[in-house]
């Protein structure tokens, strides 16, 4: 079933003995509502409230006690109140009614046996200052665009998915998985687009869907922004974000605009809260804790690489290329690897990290950092000889461990590498399409390294 990975996270929440009402976060059109409808099949009863509908808002506006509220909801939806423990209550578009947000607190305190999920469009809630989340009384789950494994599932590529999940990956599966990953690289992970392609296998039929998604985000701004100048700033930020994605950016004049740092900073941070993009600030240390330096220029990561490819007009460039590193100067595959790494992160505070050293005459920058077992694992997205990984060598000079990762257009290999001073470390080379499996491969890599050093 499409969205299987997120459904597994919902099952963990359902079975937890410390369950709280769950707020599902995510940008528009990442499949939040469809996901909960599918999850509801686990329950004997399901109540769906859409607060854009006046009839579904009434119980929130008229209640005096939690019990009265729940009795009214179960009555209006023709469900048995006695069976509420086996009922999923889903409050959709919760941003439409401040009283509904407050109700989550009361449901947590007075009806903990009732499984409750809420979802909404964060773009609206940002501009509605009346809305306040009940801190400490709700759990969060972030829903992002479909990852490569979900793409395989949607296409019915059962055998490919089975091989992708094996650790380590067999050599015979590499070529076929690269072919499928190139398709995913072109299309991206927006659920409606993935489903359309799965149903029709026609790239040309996707154009209207891409246009509709982007237009929808622009229309959201028009509808909910507080002032006309704010509308203009955010609309420009959305349009320009695709051309600037994967790069380090400056707020002043962002996207070749005449806008200043304050206007563009506010617009981009608004879009980040709406989860349409991420501003990834660099770390400057090779050891924990992660401490992004917000004084330095951030790297821009947009919601979906498929939207990026369509906006830039580089989809045809991807078709037939032997190495995705050759597309758009390598920026597209670095962005996609970041998206794949992010696809396995469901926490509200999870995010991407990268490293830089800005010194005169010796600057260096790594594509990504991955915290694991008390270590910061450097991640590069590059093809070519290991000797060309200069920034990686610089990072490993200061790292208190000997593990590094590279994603490239090849199979699984472990190489020994040396820094400029002669420090030896080990480099795990993985095909691009295993980026979402990094957490699984690091323990295996650690065992392999231990075996080599103890031999």
From TrEMBL:
Pfam families: AAA_14, DUF4143. It comes from the Bacteria. Residues 18-137 form the AAA+ ATPase domain. Transmembrane segments: none annotated. SUPFAM superfamilies: P-loop containing nucleoside triphosphate hydrolases (SSF52540). This is AAA family ATPase.
């Amino acid at each position: 079933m499409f969205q299987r990975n997120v459904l597994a996270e919902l099952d963990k929440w359902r079975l937890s003995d410390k369950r709280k009402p769950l707020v599902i976060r995510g940008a528009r059109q990442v499949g939040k509502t469809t996901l909960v409808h599918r999850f509801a099949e686990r329950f004997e009863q399901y109540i769906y409230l859409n607060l854009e509908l006046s009839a579904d808002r009434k119980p929130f506006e008229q209640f005096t006690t939690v019990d009265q509220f729940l009795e009214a909801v179960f009555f209006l939806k023709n469900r048995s109140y006695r069976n509420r423990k086996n009922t999923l209550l889903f409050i959709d578009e919760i941003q439409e009614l401040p009283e509904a947000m407050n109700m989550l607190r009361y449901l947590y305190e007075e009806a903990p046996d009732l499984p409750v999920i809420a979802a909404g469009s964060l773009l609206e809630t940002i501009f509605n200052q009346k809305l306040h989340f009940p801190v400490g009384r709700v759990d969060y789950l972030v829903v992002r665009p479909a990852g490569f494994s979900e793409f395989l599932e949607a296409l019915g590529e059962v055998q490919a998915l089975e091989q992708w999940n094996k650790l380590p990956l067999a050599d015979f599966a590499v070529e076929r998985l690269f072919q499928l990953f190139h398709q995913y690289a072109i299309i991206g992970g927006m659920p409606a687009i993935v489903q359309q392609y799965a149903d029709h296998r026609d790239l040309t039929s996707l154009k209207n869907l891409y246009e509709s998604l982007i237009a929808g985000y622009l229309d959201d701004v028009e509808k909910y922004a507080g002032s006309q100048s704010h509308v203009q700033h955010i609309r420009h930020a959305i349009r320009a974000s695709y051309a600037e994605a994967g790069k380090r950016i400056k707020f002043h004049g962002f996207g070749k605009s005449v806008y200043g740092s304050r206007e563009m900073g506010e617009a981009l941070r608004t879009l980040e809260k709406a989860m349409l993009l991420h501003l990834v600030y660099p770390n400057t240390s090779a050891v924990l804790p992660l401490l992004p330096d917000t004084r330095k220029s951030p790297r821009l990561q947009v919601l979906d690489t498929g939207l990026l490819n369509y906006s830039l007009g580089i989809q045809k460039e991807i078709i037939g290329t032997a190495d995705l590193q050759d597309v758009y100067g390598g920026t597209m595959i670095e962005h996609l690897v970041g998206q794949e790494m992010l696809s396995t992160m469901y926490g509200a505070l999870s995010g991407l990290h990268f490293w830089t050293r800005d010194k005169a005459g010796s600057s260096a920058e790594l594509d990504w950092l991955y915290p694991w077992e008390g270590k910061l694992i450097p991640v590069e997205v590059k093809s070519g000889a290991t000797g060309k990984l200069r920034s990686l060598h610089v990072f490993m000079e200061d790292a208190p461990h000997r593990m590094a990762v590279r994603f490239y257009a090849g199979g699984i290999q472990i190489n020994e590498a040396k820094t400029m001073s002669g420090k030896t470390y080990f480099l795990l080379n993985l095909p691009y399409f295993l980026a979402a499996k990094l957490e699984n491969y690091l323990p295996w890599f650690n065992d392999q390294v231990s075996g080599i050093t103890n031999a």
